[in-house]
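Troubleshooting entry. Yesterday's outputs looked truncated, so today I'm pasting the complete records for two proteins to confirm everything comes through intact. If either block looks cut off, that's the bug. Protein one:
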Amino acid sequence: DVMVERLRTLGKEEGVVVDDDVLFEVARKGQGCMRDAEGVLAQVLSLGEKHITRVVAEPVLPVPDIRNAFEFLGAITKRDVLSAIVSLHLVADNGNRLGEYATLLVDLLRGELLERIGCKQNGVLLSAEDAIAIKEILKPNDNDILKSMIEKLSLAKNDEELYHVPLLSYELSVLDLCGGRQEGHKETIAGDNSAV
């Protein structure tokens, strides 16, 4: 992407190597505006390191774990409640901000939805490998399901402060998105002992 390459060049001009995942997050934070992305990059470069990794950038640029995001979205696609909730707990246990994670998820979903309807400028910057991975993960979902995922995750982010446990709003959204069922597990409904 042009923005990522420009950011990489700016880093090199300062004598700093910035890892790709950090550059993509800087560009994503810029939301399509080069000036905003350059401002974020300036904050990252102000750390004074000659090699900026995800760990080094964390104090000024929390970089959500995109692999975990892919696992979470894959679990939702498969209606695998347990795996989706485990992914959420890993984010929290690793000290990541849930709001940043939810923003990444919504951005990924929005990008795929906009691309499906023919919008070329969707504002989501991914490596070529990640772009292929997210398409494959979300392929089974129709546009209405993607829309529902965006709505539920956005609401969970907004509702995070309503609960005494920050994860609760996200856990509830997982149950909503997966229909409250763990695929492959038996459930009973009001005395009915047959599998649902």
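Protein two, checking that the full record survives here as well:
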Amino acid sequence: LFIFHKALQFYSKLKDRKDIKLSKRFKAGVNLSLYTLMRLEIEDIIHLLKTYDVSARDVIIEVKESYINDKNAYLKIHNLYELGFVVVLDNYSNSSSSLSYLVDLKVDILKLSDSLLKEVNESEEYTHMRSVYKFFVDISEKFDLSVVSSGVESKRDLDLIKELGVNIATGHYFSRAVVEEDFVEYLKDNLKRKKR
């Protein structure tokens, strides 16, 4: 629960700052380990939302695809979705994925594994792996899921995923992980650039 508390606290502070203007699409994000997910109590989450005056729709919860094999974790994910959280099924790939998850599990976003993008780039069967990637993008759209491509490391990666129909991406091409203070400075610098 500590990580949830810290994320909501930081998000709430950012919203209240006068020197930063956040996009309406800006959300808090929390990656949950299986251990943390299993220990979460819905009442505690609701209390934290009220404490920091944050809507569940303003919080993205990322859970790894492997967690959904656990029935209790599956139910917790479903409950979080029903509360209004934006749920991301993280690390989706062709090695362990089941399309049946997409039918039953309530999620908003499918985050494709960085290893899948790497396979597309490095495979001798480039055309085949590219088709597999495109299949995941297309099937996600059929289920009305947004798609995020993780592991974008270069302009080449970015061009490839755009060509395959993905318009949301994460990876070191955009930024390495940063601490709170550096993130605030990034937001301030971004605001200054927009004013020019």
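Both blocks look complete. Sanity check on protein two: The beta strands are 28-31, 59-64, 86-92, 109-112, 146-149.
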